[in-house]
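hiii, so i know i said id send this last week but things got crazy w the move. better late than never?? heres the sequnce for the chain we talked about at the cafe, plus the structure i predicted for it. fair warning i was half asleep when i ran it
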Amino acid sequence: MSAPGAGEQAGFSRGRSGSLIAFLLGAATVAGFAPLYLFPLPMLTLAALMLQWHAADTPRRAAWLGWYFGLGYFLTGVSWVYVSLHTFGAMPAPVAAFFTVLFCAYLALFPAAAGYVAARVRAPAALKYAVAVPAAWTLLEWVRGWLFTGFSWLALGYSQVPTSPLAGYAPLLGIGGVTLATAATAGMAATLALAVARRASLVRQSALYALLGVWLAGYGLLQVQWTQPAGQPLSVALLQGNIPQDLKWRPEAVRSTLETYLNLTLAADSRLIVLPETALPLFLRDVPSGYLERLGRHAARHHGDVLIGVPEGSPDAGYYNSVISVGAAQPQVYRKSHLVPFGEFIPLRPVLGWIVNTLSIPLQDFSRGTETPRPLEVAGERVAVNICYEDAFGEEIIRQLPQATLLVNASNVAWFGHSIAPYQHLQISQARALETGRYMLRATNTGMTGVIDPRGMVVALAPQFTSAMVVQEVQGYAGATPYVRWGNAVVLALCAVLALGACLAGRVRR
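okay and structure toks below
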């Protein structure tokens, strides 16, 4: 017997109107992330997509609906790729637009795969949408986070950070656990809609209780203090030089850039001073004599240290995107290991090297630093440094924990102009603070420079596109959240068990 409204459901998923609806649902989902932080929205849009999948007549149609959803999602959410390629990379506009659409079309394959899974699994709707599909979605996001070096931007769980009750799962299971809870909420909402249409009171009550349980558990986890303060509070100064990207690497602008950061540093009396990624736009060996010594002497007078983003090495011997320290402690260095394809290294150079010839990006072939870095011992703290894009990979950040007491992200997001990318990057850093139970200090060239507390809340933030200094008292933390101890292993195992259980409960079409 057909459920009431089956005809309307079919129209909701078939034809061009169904594809357009899926596309618009994906585009609307982006409003759930920073800067709007409308965290309930992604659950509602994903629930509507699941209803489309339920009405789809074939697995192929469900996959296409997922793809259109993903296309709207990523074209809206990562359209700033075009800004990087064209505005600052000097790629011709039509070519930059083509590669942006192609990249988003690739990313849309992951929601498409989730739709295919949803149509292939034969199980009761409640089990399918509240268990199997959320597990598949989470596993597919994990794959997206490492395949072809990984792109985990706009993982669904980020939309819940920091104020949603579901953010409580971050220190327990990482952002993957938040994704699982978010997708499960969407699945339960879809199940409720189907149960109401079918007047299935038992299913409706079960979905409501399950939904309440997931949210209450998340809220309870938010109240847990997983880590403890260690040592004395210290003052930090985070510097934002606001050097325009189109001037940053020009030889005639180097002197003014050095003077900007020298003056900002000398104006700070904090124990820990942090400069952005590649704040000094020349190789370390070419920094003028006495410049670093002057910065170091200033920091040492306050019994502290300065962390400076600067490329080091040479094109012949290999060069690194690095953060070095000068000051009271022995000089130390952190070298970036997770590099950005085409921005920092050239994958498959014999085949794809021609793409680089269309870009005006300096230093495109960095070497990788070690994958097992140690925290820098500066200003009386053990600081886990990461550079720009690296903080999008939670399991890589925890390599320096639980030894590290503070997290520092040095970035140059000027590449993204006035887009939403800097806001999204800030939200990603908020998730890393939540996962690890540590303060996250962000020093960026043009924004968002600020301080995030261990609960993922922004406590200080500089205005964008201004030369600024954020001064804040912070606290080092000790201990380890469950995520720091387990990484992604537990949530991946949980998803595998849930997916297998759902398949065994029903049966898979052949």
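btw The longest helix spans residues 170-198. thought thatd interest u
miss u guys!!
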